[in-house]
Design a protein that fits this description.
By secondary structure, the protein is mainly beta. Helices cover 8% and strands 38% of the residues. Strands 3-2-14-15-17-18 form a 6-stranded mixed beta sheet, with no helix packed on it. Strands 13-4-1-16 form a 4-stranded mixed beta sheet, with no helix packed on it.
Length: 424
Amino acid sequence: MKQIPILVLMLFAIVKSYSQDYLISFAGEGASTTIDSVVAENLTKNTSATIPGGDQLKLEVVLSAINSLNNDDNTLHIYPNPAEKYSIIEFYAVKGGWTAIEVFDLSGKLLAQTRSSLECGKHSYTISGLSSGVYTVVVKTRDNNYTKKLICQSDNKRDIKISYNGVSGEINSPVLNKLKSTNDEISMQYTEGDILKLTGISGIYSTIYMDIPTSSKTIIFTFVSCTDADTNHYPVVTIGEQTWMAMNLKTIRYNNLDTIETTTPDTLDIYGESTPNYQWTYKGYENKVPTYGRLYTWYAVTDDRNVCPIGWHVPANDEWTILTTYLGGEDVAGGKLKETGTTNWFSPNTDATNETGFTALPGGTRNATGPFEYIGDSGTWWSSTENETVTGDAWLLHLMFDWSGVSNPSFSESNGLSVRCVMD
C-alpha cells in the first residue's frame, strides 16, 4: 500500500484544524433589543475592531506560527476561505497605479504573481490551481501592502493562476476606503484560544461579553440600566451570578441629586472628622476621572442617599468573596480581574488577562491625612462592611501591579478609595 508522507499528514492536520473561520452574529435583549455597534477586542493579540449594528464579526482563524506582514483585515477579502478549487480576492485601490498580487507558501517561497496598472476602485481577482496547504496572499498597491492567509483543501495538480475579474466602481468617499465584505462582515485575525472582549452598545446601554470562540454563534447582549445621578453611563459585565459595573464610579451626586462634597484644599487632613462624606479626583486631575473614576470615603459610599445607580449598590464584603471564590480564589483572582497591558497599570502587571471583563484599574488612594498615593500601582475598592474588631475600619478589595492575587484588608473609613457597584 502506498504510504502518505508524514509532512503531508502534518499539513493536512494543520489545515483541518484551522479550516473553519467563525461568523459571530449579535442580538440584544432586556432594556434594548437593538445593537448600535459592537467593539471587539482580542485581549491576547491586543487588536480590536468595531462592528456596526446588523453586521457580523468574521474571525479568520490563522496559524500562530505565521506572522502577517500587515494585517489590515478591513481592506483585503478572500472568499471562499478555505478554498476547494478557487478563491476570489477583493480589495480597494484607493489611488490608481501599479498593483502586484503575490502568493507564497509556508516557507515563504513565491509561487505565483501578477502585476497590473489599476484604476481607483474595488477590484476582483481569482486564484486557482492551488493544492492542499496554507498560503499567504499579498496585495501591494501604490500606498499599502495587504496580506491574508488562504487555506486550500483540494488536491489540484495544475499550475497556480491569478486572473483579473474586473473593477466594480470608484470610491467617492473616504468612508469607503475601508472595505466591508459582501456579506456585511468585519474581519478580525483569531487564533484558537484567544480571549475576546465584546462590548455591545445600544444607546445609553453597554454590556460586555467575554468569549473564547470555538465555532460560529450568535451572542446575545443583555442590556440593563446603569446610569448614575450625573448621567454617567457605565458598561456592565456578568461574572458568575453577579452583574458588575465594568468601570470605576465617577459621580459627584447621590441619587437624590445632593452633591457629594470635596475638601479645600484637596489634601486637607480629615482624620479627626467623625463622618467625613467626601469624594476627590486623584490630586485634582479631572482628566484622570474618565479612566480611573473618583475616590470616595466609606462614609460617602454607605450614605443612605446612595452613590450607585438606581438598582445597584456598593458590594458587601461577602459579595467580593463570592466573586473571588468564583474566579478560583484569592491567589489567582487578581490577574483575571485586571485590565491587560501597561497603559494604565505599572509594569509588569503580573498575570493580567481580564478574562472576566471586569477591567480593574489602579485608581490609587487618598489618605485620610491628605496625601494621594499609588495610582497605577494598586486598585482598592470599598465594601459596605465594617471591620467589627477595628473601630473606624471597613473591608475592601485590593489588587496590585506585581501580583496575580487579591487581598482583603481593612482601611480607615476616612480614606478615599475607588468604588464598583454590583446590581441588586
